[in-house]
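Field log, afternoon session.

UNIT: design team B
ACTIVITY: writing a sequence onto a fixed backbone
BACKBONE:
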């Protein structure tokens, strides 16, 4: 169901729960706790969540745990599968393996690039999108310059955009966030950031989400569908990308599929982000000028 047909207050309250789930996947996430975060009664909340999100709360939490685990394995996390399972909220490696196989069609011990490509081959629309974005020529080690920096936590307001690659969903959501920031005098000092909560190779296209964010002073309040959260601080691997969408995709491929696998780092669970040097509004959505950042920890 499109969020534009749902009360903005309902969207904001469900987004608070989604943010909590993503930040606490390794913890027990009870219905009572999540309903309290959304300020609904437990009796009604699971129905409300399903209506807004398009899947049940239980299915959503399990999918987030499985996709987080798959992303960690895919991106070279060198911990044992048991450690990854516990990090993502599974009670045991046996439960993790059974759930992973049911969801993806093979156990986590067999998850590699060949399996991922075979899985994508069965997802027509997803495969077509990926083929359009995936780099096909080899990388040179110095094609992009990657730096490691320690970044502070960032207070942001954001709008969550569902199915961002369809039509003009991304641009329309961005415009609504900019209208919010302009009306409150926030734009002059704000940094614009994009946060992708999902991995296109793992998450089906129709379940993708993208958060457009504005950095704001602590204590700034959202309104309607505009929500607030804190992006965690820590070490980030970063590279500068300037160019069209194909160049942006190649930069991300270089960071994840080339540099990361040869580095002394592995990604931490927080999502990657795009920090805009020049905004999409300035550049007209034709070319981009941004820093691609992934949170990392030492191996």
């Amino acid at each position: 169901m499109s969020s534009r047909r749902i009360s903005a207050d309902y969207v904001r309250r469900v987004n608070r729960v989604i943010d909590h789930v993503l930040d606490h996947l390794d913890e027990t996430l009870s219905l009572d706790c999540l309903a309290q975060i959304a300020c609904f009664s437990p009796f009604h909340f699971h129905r409300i969540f399903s209506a807004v999100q398009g899947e049940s709360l239980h299915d959503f939490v399990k999918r987030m745990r499985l996709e987080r685990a798959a992303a960690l394995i895919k991106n070279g996390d060198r911990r044992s599968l048991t450690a990854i399972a516990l990090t993502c909220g599974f009670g045991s490696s046996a439960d993790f393996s059974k759930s992973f196989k049911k969801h993806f069609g093979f156990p986590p011990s067999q998850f590699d690039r060949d399996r991922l490509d075979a899985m994508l081959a069965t997802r027509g629309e997803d495969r077509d999108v990926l083929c359009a974005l995936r780099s096909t020529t080899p990388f040179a080690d110095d094609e992009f310059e990657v730096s490691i920096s320690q970044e502070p936590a960032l207070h942001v307001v954001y709008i969550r955009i569902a199915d961002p690659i369809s039509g003009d969903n991304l641009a329309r959501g961005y415009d609504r966030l900019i209208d919010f920031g302009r009306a409150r005098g926030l734009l002059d000092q704000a940094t614009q950031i994009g946060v992708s909560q999902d991995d296109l190779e793992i998450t089906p296209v129709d379940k993708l989400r993208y958060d457009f964010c504005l950095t704001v002073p602590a204590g700034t309040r959202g309104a309607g569908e505009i929500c607030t959260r804190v992006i965690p601080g820590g070490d980030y691997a970063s590279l500068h990308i300037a160019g069209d969408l194909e160049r942006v995709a190649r930069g991300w491929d270089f960071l994840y599929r080339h540099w990361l696998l040869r580095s002394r780092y592995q990604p931490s669970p927080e999502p990657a982000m795009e920090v805009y040097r020049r905004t999409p509004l300035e550049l007209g959505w034709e070319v981009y000028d941004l820093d691609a950042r992934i949170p990392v920890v030492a191996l």
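LOG NOTE: The two ends are 41 Å apart (CA to CA).
NEXT ACTIVITY: expression trials, pending approval
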